[in-house]
Amino acid sequence: MSKVIKTSFGTWANPKNIALGSVSPVQKIGAFYCFSMRLDNDDIREYSFTTYNKANYMRKIMIGHLEVKFKSEIKKIKS
Question: Is the pTM of the predicted complex or chain greater than 0.85?
Answer without folding.
Answer: no
